[in-house]
Amino acid sequence: MKLRYVLLLLGVLAFVSLFIGVSSLSITDLFSMTEEQREIFWSSRIPRMLSILIAGAGMAVAGLVMQQLTQNRLVSPTTAGTMDAARLGMLVSILFLAGAPALVRIGTAVAFAVAGTFIFMFILERVRRKDPIFIPLVGLMFGNILGSITTFFAYRYDLIQNMTAWLQGNFASVISGEYELLWLTVPVLLFTYWYADRITAAGMGESFARNLGVSYRTVINTGLVSVALITSLVVLSIGMIPFLGLIVPNLVTIFRGGHMRKNLPYTAVAGAAFVLICDIFGRTIIYPYEIPIGLTVGVIGSGIFLYLLLRRGRHGS
Amino acid sequence: MIFAETLVKKYGGTAVVDNVTASIAQGKMTTFIGPNGAGKSTLLSMVSRLLSRDGGSVSIDGTPMEHVEDKELAKRLSILKQSNEMSVRLSVRDLVSFGRFPYTRGRLTDEDEQIIDDAVAYVELQEIENKFLDELSGGQRQRAFIAMILAQDTDYILLDEPLNNLDMRHSVQIMKVLRSLVDDLGKTVVLVIHDINFASCYSDYIVAMKYGKVEMEGRTWDVIHPEHLKKIYDMDFQVQEVNNQKICVYFS
């Protein structure tokens, strides 16, 4: 499939999604919106759609980068503790930095995500079994440890509700003025595209990378910081979207191969489309209520994740 | 010329490479032979800077290795290790195009495309150049890796057991390609090979290693001798001349 067609499909989906919601606003109203409708359109529907696109593309690309850098197709921000680390960072910023400027609090979450990812890499390098299934399990355990620390302190300080909100990503609360942080993901995404060849070279393995004159360590570190940045920005503004970074890059790689400069645009578009479809699904299935995106992506995602695991097990590689 | 002086590599107190001094002649094919665990691969890795050394020095064309920048070295020296597991799902052509990375940083010109075409053709993979590596046989994959090294177009080419997984026809073909790189283009090729007859028939010089030390080095014709081989491998060899090449028979 040409990228053009995929983009077109995404455009149509995005357009349709603008007209799904509790407040009545149909396509026919587009050119004759009332004041109230205009308000909803610009401050809720458009931001929601944009945040879905950015978060979807961001998490999918973050997963792709991570899979290449760890040389393991089952690693993603969900299975490496990155998301949980970001959430722990948010708890810390709520507990100790309540009065601090937003940038400091964001920085804290990012710092935790970066630290968590590097701890995972540290563990990974010391694990003897390089079994492709074992590694993400270690990551999940690591993430769960971080998660339980977060939950423990959240209980003690009566922040469970806040933390649960972030546990399950949700686009329903996205309104203009509060989601703009997510836009910072875009420059990071552009950077990873520019950096793509180096990431793939590192993904070929240390000796290949160094043979090609690529400084392996630098690329790994730069790539991981990018992943942590994207992940924490998404967790901060939307919440956790599990499995997205796992499924989408893997599916795209099956068809497009792993040359990152070639498949990154597809991964980004497919990630955005996947979240958009899940969101439309979650918004319509129990209309007028909606299911949080974390849940829809999680349910569909874990199904596909299981399928990938089993498929892997059968082929024994 | 590559010159390695008193190189040492230790793992847990044991020297895997023990005070090795060796020089690699410019524009020739030099083959490292020796039993398993002799330190051949370790030496190659240290020479190519993939592995840190615990002692000694390496120089390339008179410049100490540590004074050459990574990017610069990648245009002068390439290395292919023996085990090449790759989890990135690349097509043959994608892989080979990465050989141009030191020059282009990823933006290929028409000239690069031509070099990639030639490299793919050299190893006879044109017809499957768009297949993914994980869809290929071990031998095809090995040839794809060699093509990447060819596309890298360096003066020094270091290959650790390049004939792994290859059948006889493709082994001969790869050796001929390497030979022509030496003879026609003046490249310096350094190999680790286990099949003594490939070493004997194609290389100019042989360096024999044992227990981390150089047991013997010299012109191929001189090294391939029953007495020397017995010292290196602790087994009996018969050496016969066939078509002006020395063939070793060691099946007893």
Secondary structure layout plus pairing:
The complex is a heterodimer of chains A (317) and B (252).
Chain A: H1 3-17, H2 35-70, H3 82-96, H4 102-126, H5 134-156, H6 160-167, H7 185-194, H8 196-203, H9 206-211, H10 216-237, H11 244-256, H12 260-284, H13 293-315
Helix pairs in contact in A: 1-12, 2-7, 2-8, 2-10, 2-11, 2-12, 3-4, 3-5, 3-10, 4-10, 5-6, 7-10, 8-10, 11-12, 12-13
Chain B: E1 2-11, E2 14-24, E3 29-33, H1 40-47, E4 55-60, E5 63-64, H2 70-76, E6 77-80, H3 92-98, H4 101-104, H5 110-122, H6 138-152, E7 156-160, H7 168-185, E8 188-192, H8 196-202, E9 205-210, E10 213-219, H9 220-223, H10 226-233, E11 238-242, E12 245-249
Parallel strand pairs in B: 3-8, 3-9, 6-7, 7-8
Antiparallel strand pairs in B: 1-2, 1-4, 4-5, 9-10, 11-12
Helix pairs in contact in B: 3-5, 3-6, 5-6
Number of helices of chain A: 13
Number of helices of chain B: 10
CATH superfamily of chain B: P-loop containing nucleotide triphosphate hydrolases
Q: Which chains share the greatest interface?
A: A-B, 29 and 31 residues
Membrane topology (chain B): Peripheral membrane protein
Keywords (chain B): ATP-binding, Cell membrane, Ion transport, Iron, Iron transport, Membrane, Nucleotide-binding, Transport
GO molecular function (chain B): ATP binding; ATP hydrolysis activity
Pfam families (chain B): ABC_tran (PF00005)
